[in-house]
Structures are given as structure tokens and as C-alpha cells.
Design goal:
phosphatidylserine binding; repeat; calcium ion binding; mainly alpha; annexin; Annexin V, domain 1
Length: 134
């Protein structure tokens, strides 16, 4: 069987980060994980197994608090640190994942809506041309 890539591991785990409907957060973990995330940023090891593990096994509330702790400890939001990286697929995926976790009401729309635009245009055309005016 083929080994999973870092992108596959991250995507599979992120699907589950929103499966918890309760706010379950361990602030000690948030403190430790923010340090691990910072280490991954400083060493430019975005494929770092601990980084993928953190992002793919924690619920969204835990990740939000870990990102807040990161900002408190290191004086810069994690998504700002990610901006300094290149544009490879894994980095781009990490940027989007972090943004969707930090501010889902804003960024999920940016991720989900663009692929739906063609469908919206077709629906608008059909409604405009096929449905009789009343």
C-alpha cells in the first residue's frame, strides 16, 4: 500500500476537526502545541510530522486556542508566519486550513463559493430565460 503524503494526512485529519460540537479545550495542550507549531515555522519544516499530527487530530476549538496561544507567545498570528513561505501545495493547503479554522465564517465562503460560481451562473440563466415572467 502506498504511503500517505503529508497533504493526504492533513486533509483527512482536517475533515475530522469539525466533528466535535462541544468546546473541549486543554489550555496546557494549547501551550505545548503552540511551541511545536512555532518550532515547525522556524525550522521551515511544514511537512513536519508533529505539525501534521496537531492539525489533523485536534478539534477546531482546540486548534483555535492553540493559534491564539501562538500569537500570545510569539507576537504574530500563525497565518502571518505562513505568509512568508513559498507557494507549494502543502503550504497553500496549510494557509487555507489555518484561515478556515481561525475565521470560518469568512474563509469557508472563499474556499467553497468559487467552484460553485459556474453552477450559479447556469441557474441564473435558466431562471432568467426558462421561467416565464409573471
Amino acid at each position: 500500500m502506498r504511503a500517505q503524503t503529508h497533504k493526504q494526512k492533513l486533509l483527512l485529519g482536517l475533515v475530522g476537526s469539525f466533528r466535535y460540537d462541544k468546546r473541549v479545550v486543554d489550555m496546557q495542550f494549547a501551550h505545548w502545541e503552540s511551541a511545536d507549531l512555532f518550532e515547525a515555522m522556524q525550522t521551515k519544516e511544514l511537512g513536519y510530522d508533529d505539525l501534521i499530527y496537531i492539525l489533523s487530530t485536534r478539534n477546531a476549538c482546540q486548534l483555535k486556542d492553540s493559534f491564539k496561544m501562538y500569537e500570545q507567545q510569539f507576537k504574530l498570528p500563525i497565518y502571518e508566519d505562513l505568509k512568508s513561505y513559498g507557494g507549494d501545495d502543502l503550504t497553500s493547503l496549510l494557509k487555507v486550513a489555518v484561515q478556515c479554522i481561525v475565521c470560518p465564517e469568512k474563509h469557508f465562503a472563499e474556499v467553497v463559493f468559487p467552484p460553485l460560481l459556474p453552477l450559479c451562473r447556469v441557474a441564473r440563466f435558466v431562471l432568467k430565460n426558462a421561467v416565464p415572467n409573471c
